[in-house]
Amino acid sequence: MESAPREPKMESGVPPSVGHIMGADDPANPQNFPFWRKVYASAVATGAFGITSLTVGIRGVMEEFSVSMTVATLGLSLYLFGVAFAPITAPHLSENFGRSPVYLVSLPLFALFTLGAGYSKSFGALAACRFFAGFFGGPCLVLIEGTFADVWSAHVTVTYYSFLSLASYIGAGCAPLVLGYIVSAENWRWTQYVTLIIAVAAYLLGIGVPETYPREILRSRARRGGYEINLAKAENGVTLGEMAQTTLLTPLAMAVSEPVVILVTLYLSLNFAILFQWFIAVPAVLGLVYSFALHQAGLAFIAAIVGALASTVTSSLIESITNRRSGRSNMTSMAPIEYRLIPAMVGSLGMVGSLFWIGFTAAPSFHYLIPITGTGVYVWSSMSVLTGLVSYIFDAYPAKGTLSALTLMATTRITFAAWLPLVIMQMIMGLQGKWAYSVFGFIAITMMGVPVILFLFGSGLRARSRHSAPMMTNGKHTMDHHVDQEMEMGDVHRQR
């Protein structure tokens, strides 16, 4: 019979693992996985590929179903509206069943509705299938955040979140890059067929992925060993009322009462709205201004992929430097979480500059590489802002407050990302490209101060929050004084 798990303990002055309820010397602890196994468990791209895949076939959808471009764009927007439910529901599914069962159930359902979208005989059927593909594929996109937190140390939060974002950005960017050639040779339905093929491949690859959620690992160990286990109550709640309070009611309250969360949510909503409109605007503008064919417009997204890679490098480098300077690299202390905002402060400058850059250079008088390069700069800055702000919120509040804040941020930015693509072409045609993107640029200027304000005053703002606790506002948190609460804090990553 397998023995009961040991309590987490300190060894050689090093904590078990920030946020984990498993001991550092426990071989089943996901943070003790070999590096290759961590990478295997962290793999993600399919859901992100599925988000943007249909944008390549919008022209074909318009022609086959005799709908306008705005209506055809619903294929993207409805998928995102479906995904927007995942931050509300996925934490509870994960808590009750673990990671692996959720992945292995949601992915086939996502594939089923993707197949339905490919075979749709009416636009109504296509729209419904795209919504449900997003609804069932959403948990894969949300839970990957928790999986990363399971296997990577909280001391490298910015680095692991930048790699998580990189996987999603590359998945989304590869869709127009790959499908531009395929749709040009076939038809729009192949946007769904290729997504389905990738989903099936991901499912087969994922069958062997081990469970990484520590609470479920301990529960499974207890079931196999035939003994009782008494885990602390899940921070996201147990009863239906508690669950609704954490991921529905509290987020709504935070949206009107929590300055830190309001500022971050607004900034990331602008960020994502602009990010996803590129999948509509770039092919359309390149076609109108430079007479690009579909596959040529797809190649423009290489710049976005390069921008995402650059953001991963710069954000990880910034964290490495701040770790060394703050003494955090030895993993015996955690520096103030405000240091995680540095990538966002750098990225905010790039967001503003790239929007004016693109708006004023997407014209026949400029070489097409100039505005395309601008989109790469936007993606670099967008991802840097996302990485910095989300990494900051990860530990800005105790577990319940953080989970509620992350839920609000995720659902809101996904909803904005679904809305703007529906109207972007009207904005470009009505205001002209330079003024349409100048509007976004001026709004981005007002948002530039968000990471700076949080860096300077965030600790004080959180100190006055009813969702906060003393340990979250003390500046530098030492492990020997705050191990228990930091373990609770990191657990919110896994409950998402």
For the sheet with most strands, the description reads:
2 strands, antiparallel
- What pattern of helices and strands is seen along the backbone? HHHHHHHHHHHHHHHEHHHHHEH
Mean pLDDT: 85
Look at the helices and sheets and give the structural class: mainly alpha
Specify the number of helices: 21
Beta-strand content: under 5%
Low-confidence spans: pLDDT under 50, at least 5 residues?
Answer: 1-20, 471-490
Measured distance between first and last alpha carbons: 32 Å
Q: Spatial order of the strands in the main sheet?
A: 1-2
Number of strands: 2
Helix content: over 70%
Q: What form results from the Cα inertia axes? A: globular
Instruction: Provide the gyration radius in Å.
Output: 22 Å
Protein model, in words:
It is globular and about 70 Å long. By secondary structure, the chain is mainly alpha-helical. The longest helix has 33 residues, at 399-431. The two termini are 32 Å apart. The model is unreliable at 1-20 and 471-490 (pLDDT under 50). 55% of the residues are buried. The chain has 21 helices and 2 strands. A two-stranded antiparallel ribbon has the order 1-2. Helix 7 packs antiparallel against helix 8 (123-151). It has helices spanning 35-42, 46-53, 58-65, 69-72, 74-83, 86-97, 99-118, 123-151, 157-185, 190-206, 214-225, 240-257, 259-290, 294-299, 302-326, 342-361, 369-394, 399-431, 433-447, 449-463, 479-495; strands at residues 333-334, 477-478.
